[in-house]
Amino acid sequence: MLAKEIVEDNVLPFLSHDTPDVETEGESTSHKGLSKIKLGPSSLALLAKAAIMAKYVHKSESNEWSFQKAKSAVMESIEMSNTIGLEKLQERVAEVTEMYPLCDAIALAYATVLKDCEIHCFDEGAEVKTLGGLHVIGTSLHESRRIDNQLRGRAGRQGDPGSTRFMVSLQDEMFRKFNLDTEWAVRLISRITDGEDIAIESNAVVKQ
Questions:
Q1: CA atoms of 31 and 39, how far apart (whole Å)
Q2: What is the per-residue pLDDT for 29?
Q3: Looking at domain 132-206, which of 1.10.10.10, 3.30.465.10, 3.90.550.10, 3.40.50.300 is its CATH number?
Q4: Which part of the chain is the SecA family profile domain (predicted)?
């Protein structure tokens, strides 16, 4: 998914003028999420080559490509990279032909970018494990303990390190649903803590 979005960001704008410009706080969504991924020189060069070929194809076509047509072409190229080996793709891109090998260039760029993404994910995963793994925080309790355990199960999957913690307000809907009077506790805690947001721990909740 990461490699696919990187290729699309670099190729689609040159294939179609209809490419939607989706932004989040002034920055494209994919760039916000993928800015940490460092691409190698080979990936950057192949992406640039694919972009140049896309620009050439777009200009040489008598009819402008729609966004859907451009995206379909990119998807076909990505699927091609899964069936054709890297060496074969390199040979096809290097061949001198009358038509620019757009699909081959995109497929080769995707295969190279994918390797960089795999390295990034592996390194990031190792860093997360070193820091203790995924920490899941539950902010409310469900009627069923099974549902709470499913949330807890998001951390430490398949032997990976992880931890969970539930932090529940005394004004949580669960307490009201079972007619538990917690108003007195809220008032008491407010007096003790002088209105400050200080957590009051209970093993019954923390170890839910």
A1: 13
A2: 45
A3: 3.40.50.300
A4: 1-199
Tell me whether residue 146 is exposed, middle or buried, using C-beta atoms within 10 angstroms of its C-beta: 0 to 12, 13 to 18, 19 or more.
exposed
**H or E segment and range at residue 36:** none
Tell me the two tokens of residue 204.
């019954």
* Strand spans (E) along the chain: 23-24, 27-28, 134-138, 162-166
Query: What does the DSSP 8-state code read for residue 134?
Result: E
Residue type, 56: Y
Do the bridges between strand 162-166 and strand 134-138 make them parallel or antiparallel, or are there none, so unpaired? parallel
> Cα separation of 197 and 114, whole Å?
46
pTM across the whole model:
0.66
Does residue 62 surpass a pLDDT of 80?
Answer: no
Report how far residue 187's alpha carbon sits from residue 164's, in angstroms, rounded to the nearest whole number. 28
